[in-house]
Amino acid sequence: MNIYILEDNLIQQQRLERIIKTLALKHRITYRSLFSTAKPDHLLEKIADAADHQLYFLDLEIKHEEQKGLAIAKEIRSRDAYGTIVFVTTHSELAPVTFEYRVAALDFIEKELQEADFVRKVEECLLIANSRRTIPVSSDTFSFENKYTSFQIPFSDILFFETMEIAHKIRLVTKTKVLDFYAELNEIADQDKRLFRCHRAFVVNLANIRSVDKKNKWIWFDHNESCLVSRRLLKETLEKMEAIRQS
Questions:
Q1: How does residue 96 score in pLDDT terms, banded at 50, 70 and 90?
Q2: Domains present along the chain, CATH in parentheses
Q3: What 3-state class would DSSP assign to 48?
Q4: What pLDDT is stored for residue 82 in this prediction?
C-alpha cells in the first residue's frame, strides 16, 4: 500500500504526515511510501503505476479552488478503481457534493475537529484501508509478490510483460496503465496457464490476444498494443491461445 496526501497548506500537510506515521507505528501497518504534495499534477504523475490498494487523503480546496480536490478524486478513480479516497477539508458544507462525483469516498474529515477526534478519524481510515490489502481487487486477480514488490491487478486487464534495459526490471502493460517492477520473466510465466513466454523478452496474456501476424511475428492486443513472438515459439503460442479460448 502507498499513501498519498494532497494538501497545499504545509502545516496541515506535515500534521497529517506525522499522524499517519505515528498510527502506522502503533498498529504495525507497513506501507511502501508516504507521498505528500501541494500540486495535483505531481500526485497524478506519482500514481500512474497504481496497481493495488492505495490510500489517498485529499484536501478539497487547492489554491483557492474549492472543488479542485473533487476533480482530482474523479481523475484518481478513473485510474485507480480500488483505491481508498478520504477527503480532509475545512469546507464541511461540500460533503453532499462529493456524492455527485461518484468517487466512492470512504470518509470526510474536517480539519477543525478536536485533535483527538481528528486523529481517531484518520486512524479509522488507515485501519480500513490496511484491511482491504488482503481483499482481491477482482474475482479473477493476478497477485504477484517477491522480495522487491507486491501488487494485485485484474487478470482481464493484463496484456503482456516485457523486459527493460535495466537488469531484472519488468514492465507490465495493461489496458489502462503501465507498471514497472523488479522480477524475472520466468517468475511471471509460472503464475498462471494463461501466461506464456512467447519470446525471450515477452510474456503474454493468451486470453487477451486479438490477433497474430504470423509473417512478421507480431502479437496484437486491443488499444493498438503489440509485442514480438519468436519464430521458434510461434506455433506453440497459437496452440496455447486456441486452448485457452476453448477452455
A1: low
A2: 2-134 (3.40.50.2300), 141-246 (2.40.50.1020)
A3: helix
A4: 77
